What we know:
Number of domains: 1
CATH topology: Hypothetical protein af1432
Strand order of the largest sheet: 1-2
Radius of gyration: 19 Å
Largest sheet: 2 strands, antiparallel
Helix content: 40-55%
CATH architecture: Orthogonal Bundle
CATH class: Mainly Alpha
Order of helices and strands: EEHHHHHHHHHHHEEHHHHEE
Number of helices: 15
Strand content: 5-15%
Number of strands: 6
Amino acid sequence: MQFYLNGDIFKSTMMLDYYLKQLGYPNIPQFLEKYLKSPSLLRLKKIGYFCGMDYASKDVYNFKEKITRYDHSLTVSLLVYKLTKDKKMTLAGLFHDVGTPCFSHAIDYMNKDYENQESTEEYTEYCLKKDTYVLKCLKEDNIDINDIINFKQYSVVDNKRPLVCADRIDGVILTGIAWTNNISKKDIRDIICDLTIFKNEQGKDEIGFKTLEIAKRVLKASDTIDLYCHCDEDNFMMELLAKIAKFAIEKKYISYQDLYIYGEEELFKILKQKDDTELQNLISQFQTQKKEDIPKIKMPFVKARDLNPLVNGKRLK
């Protein structure tokens, strides 16, 4: 399978499709179907999972599949439902990334939020409350919108590191199949079958593993992702995209709010049409940067992607 993005060909290994099938797609719970049509969620089809790096130099990034924030939202929600059968929790998982801007965590870099990478989450409430379709659906289902906005209240959906949650497990799988290439179809099947819910030390629900072997496989994959996200190449490119976004906003070529309106491809087209030599040089560097020419850079503390899961109900470390 091949598909095109901004003139580039992405070769899909169909791993995302396989993952979705392990989560029950397309036979998803009936109540969830209508929410997949919400405008605020559909916008995420235009936002890549890898922080705008789909448009970066192919010498630095060689993604095997195009994965969007919509894909991530869907897989998180299906994973939550598979483990809990809880409607509110499932919808909180579906909409947890609805406030994601173009370029995702590169905007956290722009905002100097390197450690937590949560500076844009404040827009979750704004995006949901202006989505009249979602409000109508929630009213039909007698669900309070605040039960969906505050997704962090559900420890199965979101949890503080190094604890495990659906968002985190899904991130390991998606990143492993598209970027780090250390997750196989067998891994996906084994991981999904091994996950269950335990009560942790605080008496809260937490996703954990039934077997040590599968937990160790996920930890190994997560450690590799952490190395990728702390390498000079990724930090340099994330900072460069953050610089492009900041420059464009300061020059008033785009507004900060535009990051939540346009898709990434649309935004790049807008920026590439500007008659500004400095901006065009930055964009050109972003799209043609050679891996061997990236310098070693000193960064503030960048979010650590460490995990310490429950295995058969007991903390691993």
